[in-house]
């Protein structure tokens, strides 16, 4: 193994997403980050320089490094979520570059759903706008633990500290009210390269880290092995061969926690119990396995288990329910209405369901609730109650982003309708809709 490979294998991985309003310079920031961290191949840079020259630009348009779709290049906007993989000597990164247009907010849900950090970009000339608040709300709903406010285009406001301070104060107050646990504000100019990878020579009043320095040093606490063990069954293995006449294994990926041979487990939703007799990983029997390993479990007892069942330690069994109370981000063009028949996909299990109630829709301007809206349209965030045809073993999203999330799907064509998060919407410390909460406490709504 080369020294470079050894060095990278020893570094941690950070998944982060970028978000910002239209023309805030998000793609330029990502391009600058890749370019200045030497993460761009020479032929890629040559192609960008060639296209930039054809358009009459004096310098390479770094936004072209991320806007890969033809429509994105032609319109100068980001439409789809673009994933970029790069690394420095200190850390490896998976970057989800998400769109800024309001109609593509649903794409941010996709990009931020697995992120440990979100970079929210703001144009220093415009300050915090509605889309900024929307992105902060999505980050809070998805329980992204770290949020970076990148105040861009500081060069166009004379690098004034007062402009940055006012924007940082407004955003921090708003995001803190949503319950975002950690907010870091950084003044930058993506076009000029100020405070992206290299410290700025124009803002000596700022003593904090650059964007890359913060990305390299922010604590990453996504150790799934520390959570209660959850094993969604993906496939039942029954070779029924002369060599393995009685072999029965349950294959899948450990969603969280640690599983050990000899541990008592419960199968949900049936509630039947057994003991882990063996764990097979990559063709070898092991005594212990942890998330996110893909393994095959063998149990001591013959139990009727199929795809979609969940195996969990008997000491930490998640509750089962047929009435799912959750917050959803609606992502489809067609509205989600009360009475709609849907499919609910949770881990490896898909069940029929019906939307019983839509108690509220979140108003982002003042974080108030709009009661009983009747439906949710594209990019709406709202509370729903969904009745499932079969019981689901569902954690709250606050406890597990993996087993507390689900999708609502159109049963006629397979279109994804909404991304759901079970349980309370925002962090317990969030002061969202406090007056409404007091009035409707018996209903359990937190908007």
Tell the overall outline.
globular
Please tally the β strands and state the result. Answer: 25
Mean pLDDT: 83
Q: How many angstroms separate the termini?
A: 53 Å
Cα gyration radius (Å): 24 Å
Described by strand count, sense and barrel closure, the largest sheet is: 8 strands, antiparallel
How large is the count of helical segments? Answer: 9
Residue stretches low in confidence (pLDDT < 50, at least 5 long) are 1-10, 69-79, 433-447
Estimate percent helicity.
10-25%
Strand content: 25-35%
**Which secondary-structure class do the elements indicate?**
alpha+beta
Short description:
This protein has 447 residues and is an alpha+beta fold. The protein is 20% helix and 34% strand.
Describe what this molecule looks like in 3D.
With 447 residues, the protein is of the alpha+beta class. Helix content is 20%, strand content 34%. The protein is built from 9 helices and 25 strands. Strands 7, 8, 9, 11, 12, 13, 15 and 16 form an 8-stranded antiparallel beta sheet that branches. Strands 2-3-1-4-5-6 form a 6-stranded mixed beta sheet, with helices on both faces. The protein has a 6-stranded antiparallel β-barrel with strand order 17-23-20-19-24-25. Helix 5 runs parallel beside helix 6. The radius of gyration is 24 Å and the shape is globular. The model is unreliable at 1-10, 69-79 and 433-447 (pLDDT under 50).
